[in-house]
Design brief:
This protein is α/β, with parallel strands linked by helices. Helix content is 36%, strand content 10%. Helix 1 crosses helix 15. The radius of gyration is 22 Å and the shape is globular. 41% of the residues are buried.
Length: 419
């Protein structure tokens, strides 16, 4: 069984499909760092399959360069990771590359989800602010070209006619512009020959340590006697603090890598986050000024005092720097360490860490790259290329691999039922 991953990002959705036994035909992604992350992950899977994991570990330890790592991988495998912005102009180039990889084969599944900022509730809050200051129409959220990327997704359905497709996005897609975009997508997919259904899934129901809701749209060819798949749930009571327990403490701006783990818990094994030969990588925290650390400690103290949240206006005047005291008053938020699912991980973590404060008051910092990756259920051996800021962005935008694996297994069962 094979698949094409559109708007692939760092490969969270793809990781789930690989775990479920699918083989990638191509990943299409416009961000160069994310494409390199995909290539490095393809290298990992190839080396594991061929009993050469020591080569990958050498790369993680910095003993060999990325180019040297890739020299151990078949070129055709790396070429499945295509760095292109999906547009009308780029479609012929992308098709040519995919057709060369397919070599006459058919496509089983197309997966992916276009960038979701334009459909998000935050995005619509920004739109309201834009309306108030009467900026030019072409700058408003409803005219964001990302709103219409679903049309390009459907172009791939039209050309490759996969048995099934999976379209992942924020729940706001269903209601954005009073449902206009989603209804148009369904109509277009129907004209391409598909029956379409959707459900809102919660990541924590699949063992992911965050309260993250996503709409998962599944479509199948009309001549297939199918229905929306069943996705197996896997809840877990391990807390965030317990998931972080084996990670060494960090000061702001500090990095601790090549650290040999000495603790383990069942969740890390069961969720495939940790394996026996893992070393710690990308456990790096961003630096903070003293004022922010003071605010973080106040926020942590309030959370520890009955799970109270810090309201910006409650800060001492000497710690306030924002004139706007009415919007985003919860801009400082502690990761809920004593619960089994924290608030949603977002790409905004690449901008600052105020919304993802580590629950340990002695560290008084925002979470590290590795901690963010664990919250999203990425394995500890998953390496994000491009540096700290890029890694945070890739992680925040990703589909959690644990959730993706459950989706992939449901899709796999559907495909088996067609044979």
């Amino acid at each position: 069984m094979n698949y094409i991953d559109l708007f692939a990002g760092a490969g969270g959705l793809s990781e789930g499909f690989i775990r479920a036994g699918f083989s990638p035909i191509a990943h299409i992604e416009m961000d160069e760092d994310a494409v390199n992350t995909l290539k490095t992950r393809m290298a990992y899977h190839y080396l594991v399959k061929n009993d050469k994991i020591k080569v990958y570990i050498s790369y993680l330890k910095g003993e060999i360069t990325r180019d040297q790592l890739y020299q151990n991988i078949p070129q055709e495998l790396l070429e499945t990771c295509i760095c292109e912005t999906i547009s009308k102009e780029s479609l012929p180039r992308i098709y040519k590359k995919i057709d060369g990889i397919l070599n006459g084969d058919t496509v089983d599944v197309i997966i992916g989800g276009p960038p979701c900022q334009a459909y998000s509730l935050v995005g619509r809050s920004i739109k309201l602010a834009q309306d108030k200051i009467k900026i030019e129409k072409h700058e408003k959220i409803e005219d964001d070209p990302r709103n219409y990327l679903y049309k390009l997704y459907c172009e791939f359905l039209r050309k490759y006619k996969p048995k099934i497709f999976v379209f992942e996005n924020v729940t706001g897609l269903l209601s954005a512009q009073n449902g206009k975009f989603y209804n148009n997508f369904k109509a277009l997919a129907k004209r391409c020959g598909y029956i379409v259904e959707d459900k809102i899934l919660e990541a924590d129901k699949f063992g992911v340590k965050q309260s993250r809701k996503r709409v998962i749209i599944v479509g199948w060819l009309k001549d297939l006697d199918l229905k929306y798949p069943e996705f197996k749930h896997s809840t877990d009571k391990t807390t965030i603090n317990e998931m972080f327990a084996d990670l060494p403490a960090l000061e702001p701006g500090q990095e601790k890598n090549n650290y040999k783990f000495c603790q383990i818990n069942n969740y890390l094994i069961k969720s495939k986050i940790r394996s026996s030969n893992d070393i710690l990588i990308q456990h790096v925290a961003r630096p903070h000024i003293d004022r922010d650390r003071q605010i973080y400690k106040i926020a942590i103290e309030k959370w520890n005092d009955g799970h109270k949240r810090l309201h910006y206006d409650e800060l001492p005047e000497g710690l306030k720097t924002h004139k706007n005291r009415k919007s985003f008053v919860d801009r400082f938020k502690v990761v809920e360490g004593d619960t089994n699912a924290c608030h949603i991980m977002m790409a905004h973590i690449s901008k600052d860490g105020h919304y993802f404060i580590h629950p340990d008051i002695n560290q008084a910092r925002s979470i590290s790259v590795r901690e963010a990756a664990r919250i999203q259920s990425f394995p500890d051996n998953y390496y994000f290329e491009g540096g700290r800021t890029s890694a945070f962005r890739q992680i925040g935008n990703a589909v959690p691999p644990l959730m993706a694996e459950a989706i992939a297994k449901g899709i796999k069962n559907l495909i088996k039922s067609t044979k």
